[in-house]
Automatic annotation (TrEMBL):
Domain MvdD-like pre-ATP grasp per the UniProt entry, residue ranges: 8-125
Entry protein name: MvdC family ATP-grasp ribosomal peptide maturase
Matching InterPro entries: ATP_grasp_MvdC, MvdD-like_ATPgrasp
Amino acid sequence: MSLSSDVVLLITHSGDFFTIDRVAEALSKKGVQPFRFDTDKFPLEVQLTAQFDKSKSYHWLEYGADSISTEQVKAVWMRRIWEPKFGEELAPQFREACIKESRATLDGFWDSLREARWVDDLERINVAHNKLRQLRVASEVGFVIPQTLITNKAEAAREFFQQVKGKMVSKLLTALSRSMEQTSFFLYTSVVKEEDLHDAESLRYCPMVFQEEIPKQLELRVVYVNGNVFVGALDASVYAGEKVDWRSPGVDVGKWQHHQLPEEIVGCLKAFMGKFGLLFGAFDFIVTPAGEYVFLEINPSGEWGMLEKDLDLPISGAIADALIS
């Protein structure tokens, strides 16, 4: 069935729930037709066709009983892109080629939607994902940032450990792979002890991020949507001593609380997002016992469902408004 002329394309994966459903519901209430595209279902269960002639190109997407054309899509929510799921019937020697060709086909489809309104543009998302660039821009707009070292040199890591008086954490610049998202190996911020640096020569294989460990009173998840700011706070004393990263599996973080940001921090947020040209971002901050706000990072497509669910913050409605504004 072909949908109406005004469609908002929701790009995600088949395991996504709650956030995607809430945004789709908010769009429907505003009289706009959402179309969910589970990227991991392409190419086995989603059909994508592109045709070019001398004067025009045509693109169609078919998923289940529904289909849309490029011309119908007025806006795109870039939630997640996952690699295709192939069964055992596909021989391993063909898997990589099929993934590459599927990815290239999707890239062409995204390009065909360049006239639509994106939340957010893929190129801008990719630029903003770089944590080194994030730290530079955060400092430029006035955020306080942790002392940070990125290195593949063992001696530099040991010297930095002494510089921060043994209060040091480590993390990677990127997740190692999509398949590792359900594990905690190297994906979460970890405390570094002096004995951990005895084997630091292995850094020559993989640079890492080292930062001073910031004392915590609160940890904040701050969601920015087109000028609107939504904040959830965690009392760090609830899980202190368990893990340094509240996102780690098995950590009981207690209840999310409402929190009001100072106006100067809101101003820095808007300047930061303006630098990257983003409409959406999920920020992580620490509030120290002295009341200082310390920027950690931004995820341009980060999670926010827990804030809407637990604090009744209208984030899905704000995303729907950003898409159709």
